User: What shape does this take?
Amino acid sequence: MISLGIESSADKLGIGLIDSDGNILSNIRQTYKPPFGSGIHPREASEFHSTNMPAAIEEAFQQAGIAPEEIDLISFTKGPGLGPCLRIGVIAARTLALSLNKPLMPVNHPIAHVEIGCLEGDLKDPVVLYVSGGNTQVIAFSEGRYRVFGETLDIPVGNCLDVFGRNAGLSDKQLPMGRVIELEALKGSKFVDIPYVIKGMDVSFSGILTHTTKLLSSNNYDLTDIAYSLQETVFSMLVEVTERALAHTRKEEVLVCGGVAANKRLKEMLNEMSLSHNAVFKGLDANLALDNGVMIAWLGILMHNSGVKAKLEDTIIDQHYRPEDVPVTWK
Ligand code: AMP
Ligand code: MG
Assistant: This one.
């Protein structure tokens, strides 16, 4: 069977096609770019998605070399994410489903990240650190559900990096802000003290963002040293919480996904931590680590094959949809 996946929860529009053997037939991604110095504007991002949706879907079929009638399922991101952006995805999914007369499958975005990681990384049951511009969660399967073992209490780590970078006046036409900061951090060497904020199993970044922004404007420190210290601090916090989840669940695999997972230093730290617990560590290529339609299509197949059915009236969005809200029928 072939599933088409539509991802539109934030700044990326993703259309993916995958078959039930896990062969990826196409993976189209387009990214809305906010004007210089600002973050994602939900309405503008949703306009980007609606403008580009028809051509992206067409391109996905072209890349796969199949006709729309050949698909068996239409999967879309139900949430979490930005309301206006999610709504464009569900409208496109419903329209396709009605015109092609195919079933629909609403999908939880973080679980889709986990499942595509399991498929591509050949993992069975990992502890997952999901770090992106919109999410920061440590997720693992336990007693029939994917559970969030730790998460941010305020802003996501990617957002912390992005806003810090904007406050520092950094920008790059091609590179994501996290990558720009990664390059600055490589030039830094002097560690500057930054609050290390873990509460129970949760992390907090908003105070760190305020603090590092103040360090910038004090003019007492090099940007490179602040970037280096910021990375070391926030990544250490994330690795600590992931490590505790790993020790608690006694799992044997660790996966990192989301846009921030592209960071070499974070992967190095996670790898070292995993090795010390005799656990396997995997990251993904950017194609599948970033938001994409393939992961949505794949989780749709897993759900469909385990008997999940969605009625048209169930195909709604949920901006605050959580992993533990989903009964896991496919594991
Ligand atoms: P996503 O929300 O999954 O699309 O990921 C976007 C987030 O990943 C943004 O906050 C980016 O700044 C961040 N990001 C991308 N590349 C890197 C990198 N090399 N290091 C750290 N963060 C990154
Ligand atoms: Mg994501």
Observations:
- The mean pLDDT is 96.
- The two ends are 19 Å apart (CA to CA).
